[in-house]
Design brief:
The protein is built from 13 helices and ten strands. The chain is an alpha/beta fold. Strand 1 and strand 2 form a beta hairpin. The longest helix is centred in the C-terminal third of the chain and has 18 residues.
């Protein structure tokens, strides 16, 4: 089967499924690093050319860099250059009042070194609190890095219209916005998708499978509460609470399973296809860690949802609107239950010479 592509700009195509990196970072359960790095090649060869990571995903940029470096040595520069890397720049909350332009560029230089590449294909910018410091100057540093050839394209993440508009007003060419978007969490539909369509700005969607809750594993399962060591599961269990009671979630899983059985695919493939078919969505970020997850990941390109499928799904969604308000508003409230599980200062590590560490 052919992996679908999306065009963010005339000179830049990506795979419509992006291999996510958050699940490879700390606090998300054990990871076999050597296997995860080795298996990235299978995703690339299958047509999933685009990899998502971040400066604050501990160890993930280095893992992708090891993969690219090994690929370059074994198969040559041409093959290695097929890889598209989307990283993020997320200065620590505690640094926002005083961060300097040279600090921002130091993060970019560090990402280039970790990833073992000469240019970052897409840097997605986030500033924890826009009332602190000078976020416009932060993005301006990235624009200067573009001019120096260190960055190709700029995006933003976890912002809605109100947060993104000032940067467009200032003249920045923002090609994408990465947001949480799933059949459980439809907050981007509260105005962001329509606004983005008028501005040639496309959505890259994470949380599409709700950290693994939108899989057969949870079909028919009792409500687990919140007794998870995995921070990702806590995050998305909170989203299920916003979606509706556990019983409504189970109704949704049952419908997705029925649709999947009709097309001989998994319910998670149905959930991903639903997101890919939404207006202005360029790609879904899927946290498949290893090559053994690749066949199911590729299922999304093997079928199409028909009108009856959509009607069955909508019959559940109409009574389960999910989280309300703007994109990331719940998570941005540091005193709320969604915000309290976030980690706001992951950029500076004690062994890192950038930003004053080491």
């Amino acid at each position: 089967m052919t992996v679908e592509k999306a065009t963010l700009r005339p000179d830049y195509d990506i795979s419509r499924v992006i291999k996510g990196g958050w699940q490879l970072a700390g606090d998300h359960g054990p990871v076999d690093r050597a296997e995860a790095v080795r298996d990235m090649e299978a995703f690339l060869d299958a047509g999933i050319t685009t990899f998502d990571c971040a400066d604050i995903y501990v160890g993930v940029e280095e893992m992708i860099g090891d993969f690219i470096g090994d690929l370059r040595r074994r198969r040559g520069t041409t093959v290695a250059e097929q890889v598209r890397v989307h990283t993020k720049l997320v200065p620590d909350l505690g640094l926002l009042d005083n961060i300097q332009p040279e600090d921002v560029e130091a993060i970019i230089d560090r990402s280039l070194k970790r990833l073992q590449i000469d240019q970052l294909h897409l840097v997605q910018f986030y500033w924890w609190d826009l009332t602190l410091g000078d976020p416009l100057s932060g993005l301006d540093v990235l624009k200067r890095c573009q001019q120096k050839g260190k960055i190709v394209h700029l995006g933003v993440t976890n912002w809605d219209v109100a947060e993104t508009q000032p940067f467009l007003n200032a003249g920045f060419d923002v090609v994408s916005t990465q947001v949480q978007y799933s059949i459980l969490d439809r907050r981007p539909e509260n105005g962001l998708t329509t606004w983005a369509a008028a501005r040639e700005l496309q959505l890259l969607c994470y949380g599409t499978l709700a950290g693994g809750f939108l899989t057969e594993r949870w079909l028919g399962a009792d409500d687990p509460g919140f007794a998870f060591e995995n921070r990702s599961l806590i995050k998305y269990r909170l989203i299920i609470d916003e979606f509706g009671p556990w019983e409504t979630f189970q109704q949704l899983l049952a419908v997705l399973k029925a649709v999947g059985d009709k097309h001989s695919v998994s319910l998670s493939s149905v959930a991903t296809r639903w997101v890919l078919d939404r207006p202005q969505v360029a790609a879904a970020i899927v946290g498949a860690r290893y090559a053994r997850h690749l066949p199911q990941t590729l299922e999304v390109f093997s079928f199409a949802l028909d009108a009856d499928d959509r009607a069955q799904i909508e019959a559940v969604l109409i009574d389960a609107p999910g989280p309300q308000g703007a994109v990331f508003a719940l998570e941005r409230d540091r005193s709320g239950r969604h915000g309290r599980i976030m980690k706001y200062n992951l950029n500076t590590r004690p062994d890192d010479k950038a930003l004053g560490g080491g």
